[in-house]
Write a structure and sequence with these properties.
Elements: E1 6-8, E2 12-16, E3 25-30, E4 34-40, E5 45-50, E6 55-59, E7 63-65, H1 70-76, E8 79-81, E9 85-89, E10 98-103, E11 107-111, E12 120-124, E13 130-134, E14 138-140, H2 149-161, E15 173-174, E16 177-178, H3 180-189, E17 208-210, E18 220-223, E19 226-232, E20 235-239, E21 246-250, H4 260-263, E22 268-271
Antiparallel strand pairs: 1-4, 1-7, 2-3, 4-5, 5-6, 8-11, 8-14, 9-10, 11-12, 12-13, 15-16, 17-22, 18-19, 18-22, 19-20, 20-21
Helix pairs in contact: 2-3
């Protein structure tokens, strides 16, 4: 059986389609995320599969390998960063040294400490190093999405809006830069649903095709090579190369934010419900 046997130990681990730093960026694995080494290529490169079943090539230096702590990390990294960027500090004071900066979506271990100011949370990093994060910037990971459909739909839309204005980056999925499928897959992941990372409905993932007239908020709209999240009132949020950043557009011809190139090229719609 394939097993998760490494953990991302940098803020963002680039995943490429080849063992070449100049090759296409296909995804970004974030700090603390467990991965599987599918193939040990050479001294520098490994082919990995993320826990959400996406594959690419990354530098081994981006990974914590062969450590006894991996099983504990995978079991106990039960918190996730929700702030766009969050500094892990050496002490629970804003004047202390920064250990590392994390992005939204990074996994982290929390250590309970009696008497600690509630504004701060003690955390353990992949390396075992101890640091402190502002408590308001992290939350417990949602590993299985809620059965309350209305609540889930509301939550994924709210999460997608956290990336509003983030620049477009092919293969990206942080506030530093994010692409269309990065946006919707992160919004779903942060709420406990793991959909395919690319802009299509793929068998084996929890997304099924529906008719356009049945769209509800939080459902996905697919175009040739593109995907957006429906937010109601004929509007959708997406990260598009043509728009340069995460923005809101409309399917309504009368709306000032109407985009004909997308409204007239819908290929299918999808929902997890």
């Amino acid at each position: 059986m394939n097993t998760l046997n490494a953990v991302v130990n940098v803020m963002i681990a680039n995943l490429h389609n080849k063992t070449d730093l100049h090759s296409e960026l296909v995804d970004e694995a974030l700090y603390g995320m467990p991965v599987e080494i599918v193939e040990d290529i050479d001294d520098e490169w490994a082919m990995i599969r993320t826990f959400y079943r996406y594959e690419g090539y990354t530098l081994k230096s981006n990974l914590q390998l062969g450590s006894d702590m991996l099983a504990d990390w995978i079991a106990e990294a039960n918190y996730v960063v929700m702030q766009s960027f969050a500094d892990v500090l050496s002490r629970p004071k804003i004047q202390s040294d920064k250990i590392i900066t994390l992005t939204r979506g990074a996994f982290i271990q929390v250590i309970l400490e009696a008497g600690l100011d509630h504004a701060w949370t003690k955390v353990r990093l992949v390396t075992g190093e101890i640091g402190y994060l502002r408590s308001a910037w992290i939350k417990e990971r949602v590993k299985v999405y809620t059965a309350n459909e209305d609540l889930f739909r509301k939550q994924v839309v709210e999460t997608a809006f956290r990336y509003l204005g983030a620049p477009y980056r092919w293969g990206g999925k942080t506030a530093l830069g994010i692409d269309c499928s990065g946006l919707v897959s992160m919004a779903y992941m942060l709420n406990g649903a793991y959909i395919y990372r690319d802009a299509k409905i793929l068998e084996g993932f929890p997304l099924r095709k529906i008719e356009r007239e049945n769209l509800k908020i939080g459902d996905l709209i697919f175009f040739p090579g593109h995907v957006a999240m429906y937010i109601g009132n004929e509007q959708y949020i997406h990260s598009s190369l043509g728009g340069n950043e995460v923005s809101v557009n409309s399917l309504n011809l009368q709306d000032a934010h109407y985009r004909e190139d997308l409204a007239t090229t819908i290929t299918e719609c999808g929902t997890i419900f």
